[in-house]
Amino acid sequence: MQSIVLYQIPFSHFCDKVRWALEFYSLPYEAVNFTGRKTPGYIKAPREVQKLTPLIEDPNNDSFFLSDSTPILLYLDERYGNKQKLFPVNKKDEIVQYCLSLDSGLGLYARRLAYLYIISEHPAILSALVDFRYDKSSCNDWKSYLLGLAGSCVIMSRVGVDRIQEEHIFEKTICVLDEIQNDIQGKEYLFDNQFTAADLTLTSLMAPLSLVPGIHEKYRVIFDYCDRMRKLHDPEKDYKSNAQRLYETRPKKSFPIVRSIIWLLVSIFLYPLQFLFAKDLKKKQELQYPSNDAEKKAKNDVRVLKWTTKIESLKFFLRSFCIYCFILPRQLEHVQNEEKRLLSKE
């Protein structure tokens, strides 16, 4: 049997779902990291296939390409799940809908909140999205910091980190987590007393929320449940993305006088520019590959980024850097206030 190719961003929780499923079925696979438009799978895949990670190529099925994590899990289960199944026949439709619901809600919310903390606390981690060095053991140098700011600008615009408060992302996350916490009370597994794609999906998509202190403390029951799923059913029992490891070992913030003066001068210079970009910031962005089939595909909140000239790219990064300086701190403050309010209810 030839190796299935998984095109991935290594710290993506949706890619973790597929990685785990491949190992669950003991399938040989090759992980190929995302390198922008030059990613081999993006070039080779048919036009009708969504060019988003995770994306798999199965050479055992005429180089069949498929993206979107839950459809990939379904494909693997139907083609290779002979000895053990993630979608038991008697609960298949119910589990599929549960996974799609988590993909469309929890997965998107967790991604935004985790990126908010990473960009605010240690943006150098996102230098990997620019230099594509996903396995770096440290990113505390100036080069990583500058590349990380560029990566942060792209991520903020792509997944809407700058609109967490306006779109009530924290509040929506809490509603989902309350339902999950009630659902898992007293259960060994979510469906039919056996490990299924629902447990795998929940565990993978919860992982980014461990970076949000208030949520991690409030919903310890769910995190303990997910830890148990990892230990019992993930061949990589202690799995953590490298981005999570880098975040957990990040240096403590220090503000030397020189750096503080430089940052103040940059902020003063950029302050008038935010009014120049005011209309752009309010403009509703186009989504990439929006899903219109809730029965088969998860919702998608990835925005389209368009620039064709150096002037347009410069304008994009200036606008995004204004967001980083003036809007993102307000988003973080909002989330932290909501966390305090959440913990005060205990």
UniProtKB/TrEMBL annotation:
Occurrences of domain GST N-terminal (ranges): 2-84
Segments passing through the bilayer: 260-278
Alphabetical list of InterPro entries matching this protein: Glutathione-S-Trfase_C_sf, Glutathione_S-Trfase_N, Thioredoxin-like_sf
Cross-referenced SUPFAM superfamilies: GST C-terminal domain-like, Thioredoxin-like
Pfam entry (one): GST_N_3
Superkingdom field: Eukaryota
Keywords, alphabetical: Membrane, Transmembrane, Transmembrane helix
Stored PROSITE patterns: GST_NTER
Family: Belongs to the GST superfamily.
Name of protein: GST N-terminal domain-containing protein
Taxonomic source organism: Adineta ricciae (Rotifer)
